[in-house]
Amino acid sequence: MSQPVDILPPDTLAQELAAIQQTGSKRIAILGSRHVPLTHQQLIEMMSYALVLGGNRLMTSGATGTNAAAIKGAMRADPNLLTVILPQSLERQPRESQEQLRQVIHLVQCPENDRLSLAEASAICNRDIISRCQQLICFAFHDSETLLKTCQEAEEQRKLVTLFYFD
């Protein structure tokens, strides 16, 4: 039985080929769900470690789960190549995240979003992150509305998007 083949528009194909062939460092964002099994967190940590060892600049947010794993890996490789952008002020982050976040050299807080719900602040934060990156790697569930919308916005900005589903 044959499988249908998705044919990419020429500009998308050219963009993806250029991204694959790029040998210099990139600005890569890793975002994802807070609800991640430990084994997946370890894989994300290893991926961020390898990306930073390769000279890439890594960006993420400050939540537990995916983002905490990305921070941990990047901090082991080279803390200077990590930027963490918080959706709100540090004090509004989960207690289990605050200790890790205090060790981040390039930490951007957004206290002006403290009055917003976490979902609203996260959407704004994710937009900021994708505006700064060349590539987005996202780990989500099929019902992760904010993350899926972020991936869609990144694609609209012609960023290279790699989306992994947990379910």
TrEMBL record:
It comes from the Bacteria. This is DNA recombination-mediator protein A.
